[in-house]
Amino acid sequence: MSAHPQISWTEGEQTHTLRWQSENGTAAPKRVVVADDRMSADVAYRLVCEGTALLWRGDFQNARQLLQALARRIDRKPTKPRKQVAPVPTPIEAFHLHRQAQSQRARTLAMLLLPFDDNYVMPLRRAPDVRQACNEAYGAADGAFVVAMRELLGLIGAHEWRKKGVEIHALGDRIHPHYGVFSPVRGEYVQLVADAPLPSTKLAFDIGTGTGVLAAVLAQRGIERIVATDQDPRALSCARENIQRLGLSGQIEVLQTDLFPQGRAPLIICNPPWLPARPSSAIEYAIYDPDSQMLRGFLLGLAAHLTPGGEGWLILSDLAEHLGLRTRDALLEMIAVAGLKVLGRKDVKPHHPRAADVDDPLHVARSAEVTSLWRLTAA
């Protein structure tokens, strides 16, 4: 796919072409028709299911209602014959079926498209002012384009999260996540870092810092100097902004590097993506770690970057184990192969709503999930 993919459609007996915008790298739809307030939800649903995208020319709020109507039709459970009994899927089958369904759902809902003029202005009735949200996610405006409404709503939601922030009990303050940076809404893993006994207060490395939340917690616990690393430019910008706002820039240095900075530290922490699966978009790299690459990289490099007697803190959920994506024995083998030993482990049960949602396709695994802080050192 080219650096600037194009989308084409016919309108007023003329062919029009604009830049296609997709943060997830979704290919531009090949079939596009113009739609407005006169199109019914049933017709729209039939078209998008056939792979035809709808370029919206009507009222923005009506487009939002149409998207909700499409989602309801997608989520409607099929009627099954009474005597038909579907076999219960294994946890790993349930996971893959869930991801497949979510991917198909996302592709279908991404078929409702919105046009943008220069400077991030939508030429639609009752369109909100989204210029700041677009600037935060896309950078400076670069001409007219077309984007999926679903993506735009994600930008708006991320902008609101960035404005109000996420309350972090362990900090007694808020962290403000940027678009595309994993939000620390799972507070239990942050609390583990806040409660674990520190091996030293001199120096720590925070690998894959993201929003900078764990580096900030360590700084508030009195660690004199922290080096926080990440590869993603959005994460680096987010971490620097949060750290500056919290008044911790004198203690925390943010570096762009792959995993470890140079040197050794008595404490090195890492909260890698918890599920060893292939991401379907760039944003999902915060959740899915293909072939456990980041986890393996952290473990294999840890001993060489710890000072004698130093500790590595691995923050990891066992959800992958309950889904059949990784076994506990495989994790322990990774630790041993890396020349490490386990000093201890602190566990906590998650409290997020999905853990108690019996209608969640992954409820059995989520209800059994435990998040752990593994204290590791060189063997």
From TrEMBL:
The lineage of its organism: Bacteria, Pseudomonadati, Pseudomonadota, Betaproteobacteria, Burkholderiales. The keyword Methyltransferase applies. InterPro entries: N5-glutamine_MTase (IPR050320), SAM-dependent_MTases_sf (IPR029063), Small_mtfrase_dom (IPR007848). PANTHER family: HEMK METHYLTRANSFERASE, MTRF1L RELEASE FACTOR GLUTAMINE METHYLTRANSFERASE. One of its GO terms (molecular function) is protein-glutamine N-methyltransferase activity. Residues 1-23 are annotated as: Disordered. It comes from the Bacteria. The keyword S-adenosyl-L-methionine applies. This is Methyltransferase. Keywords: Methyltransferase, S-adenosyl-L-methionine, Transferase. Gene3D superfamilies: Vaccinia Virus protein VP39. It comes from Glaciimonas soli. Pfam families: MTS (PF05175).
